[in-house]
Amino acid sequence: MARTILHRVLAMLVLAISCATPVMGEVTFDYSAGATLNAGGGKFAPYYIASMRGGTVTQPNSALVSAAVSHEMDTTRRFSWGCGAEVWGGYSSSTKYDRYDAPSGTWKENSQHPPRLWLQQLHGEVKWRGVFLMLGMKRYGSYITNDDLSSGDLLLSANARPAAGVRAGFVNYQTFPGTKGWLQVVGEVAYYKMNDSKWLENHFNYYNKFLTTGIWFHYKSIYFRSNPNKPFVVTLGTQSSCQFGGLNRTYVNGVVTNEIKMDVKFKTFVRTIFAGRGGNNPGDVFAEGNHLGTIDLCLEYKFKNGSKLKGYLQAPWEDGSGLKKANGIDGLWGLEYNSGKPALLRGAVLEFISLKNQSGPLHFNAGDYGGSPIEGKATGCDDYYNNYTYNGYAAFGMSLGSPFVRSPLYNTDGYMAFTDNLVRGFHLGLTGDLTKEFSYRAFVSYRKSWGTPFVPRLEPVHDTSVMIEAAYKPVKVSGLQVKLSAALDRGTLYGDNTGAMLTVNYSGDFTIR
After folding, report:
1. Within 10 A of 230 (CB to CB), how many other CB atoms are there?
2. C-alpha to C-alpha distance for 189 and 175, rounded to whole angstroms
3. Are 236 and 223 in contact (CB under 8 A)?
4. Could you give the C-alpha distances from 294 to 123, 313, 363, 430, in angstroms and in order?
5. Of 13, 146, 280, 401, which residue is the least packed, with the fewest Cβ within 10 Å?
6. Structural contact between residues 348 and 365, judged by C-beta atoms closer than 8 angstroms
């Protein structure tokens, strides 16, 4: 299915270019080419080198090259189109995972590394007035958090590689008729086919747990905003996602003991939108697939000197208890400053992340046990990012949501779920300009984890992560950027990792007449 979608994207790109070029007279494309070198100690790259980079750099040692080309949609035109492609490749060191060999009844070393060549993005898109349609793989940003400075959106961040699918919605915020700009709305709906089944099969340990491959992914969001031209702006909205479909296999001592193939029909796609009941998975008696989401609030004030101060909250939910905010202070609480112009401190983000409540420590529903005489229920143990049928909420091992929660990639025992979602901590991100040519970013975070609601740790684990990054953009060589980053992790959650990364990137544009 994913391959078919990519073929359609290529056909769409060719058709769009051939049709639009004679009408527009000329088409401008942006391009970039880069090289990334990183080295360090430990089993993986330090947290801040691996996180929020689209899953491109995860290993302690890599020598990668990348190339991208794109044509951006012109949002000022009634009709416009866009397309893009990005390719990565090169060498990455391997990490040793555990794998159980059923015939011999022994554990064996399973050495894994990222592919030597992969397609990061490939998409085509069109817009008509205020709506768009995208087909393919494209990286998107958050409506609430700053992807350059934040720890990451709780539901859909820039941490993992994008999947292939179709996405439709408003191009940007649209004004409600009759409100004179005082009320605006933006929203979208998307369906994707996850393309990491082979990765999961290669990293799973095939012992006492399940593995689900061929998963589909649904995402939707809607946000309302007050007049953005006024000093004080309020944004309120929600986003939700759902894992559904796929083939689930349960293993005991390396042997398949149960197999469930979840439906992927027209009714399935409808039920995922409204969290309707149905499907042939026993758990779908409550809702089709694995649903989770956030309720988001953002307050922003613009000062007369052009600077901005923004406060925001992302409150997560996994089921009805989360929607009722029975999970206490759980959420991403953030404060962001933007100077609005070049400055020694151009931007700063301070975030407090708490996912420790999870609607309480107990979960019981009589319906789960077929006529239990015990009445009442306790809807706790939300187990964020985990599910009893689907693997952890991740793509190629990297969290689709906040990387602040330790991703399944780091489970070298081959367990493909989150082991530390009972977490609390803070994140600080700073950026600024030293000169016209030199800028910097600096990150520091601390977190403490108590395991998961169903598998709590006997003793909590912790981590402190730091990164300093310097960027150089020479005025005389337009389009060239050189970055040097140094990062480290200290603690019992990620281990003691130290590393550095050098990135050289050149970008420009060309026009086809």
Report:
1. 12
2. 19
3. yes
4. 27, 9, 21, 25
5. 280
6. no
Alpha-carbon gap, residue 52 to 72, rounded angstroms: 22
Nearest to 244, CA basis, from 210, 283, 293: 283
- Alpha-carbon distance of 64 to 503, in angstroms, equals 9
Separation between Cα atoms, residue 472 and residue 480, nearest integer Å: 8
Q: Reduce the DSSP state of residue 340 to 3 states and report it.
A: coil
Q: Which residues pair with 316 in a beta bridge?
A: 294
**Under 8 Å CB-to-CB from 224, ≥6 apart: which residues?**
183, 184, 185, 235, 236, 237
- Residues 217-242: pLDDT tens digits? 999 999 999 999 999 999 999 999 99
Tell me which of 285 and 26 has the higher pLDDT: 26
Helix (H) / strand (E) containing 101:
strand 95-101
Q: Is 274 helix (H, G, I), strand (E, B) or coil?
A: helix
Q: Which residue has the tokens 């986003």?
A: 239
What letters, b where the CB count within 10 A reaches 16 and e where it falls short, cover 138-167? bebebbbbbeebbbbbbbbbbbbbbbbbeb
How many angstroms separate the CA atoms of 512 and 29, rounded? 8
**CB burial readout 253-286, b (16+ within 10 A) else e:** ebeeeeebebebeeebeebbeebeeebebebbee
Cα(402)–Cα(445) distance, rounded to whole angstroms?
13
Higher pLDDT, 93 or 325: 93
How many other C-beta atoms are found inside a 10 Å radius of the C-beta of residue 6?
18
- The rounded distance, in Å, linking the Cα atoms of 169 and 237 is 15
Residue 66 pairs with which residues in a beta bridge?
34, 88
- Amino acid residing at 174: Q
**Interatomic CA distance for residues 264 and 262, integer angstroms:** 7
**Residue 401 neighbours by CB distance under 10 Å:** 26
Number of C-alpha atoms within 13 angstroms, CB side, residue 381? 15
Specify the DSSP class assigned to residue 180: T
What residue type is 278 in one-letter code?
Answer: G
- Residue 318 phi/psi, 5-degree rounding, is -115, -25
Amino acid letter, residue 147:
D
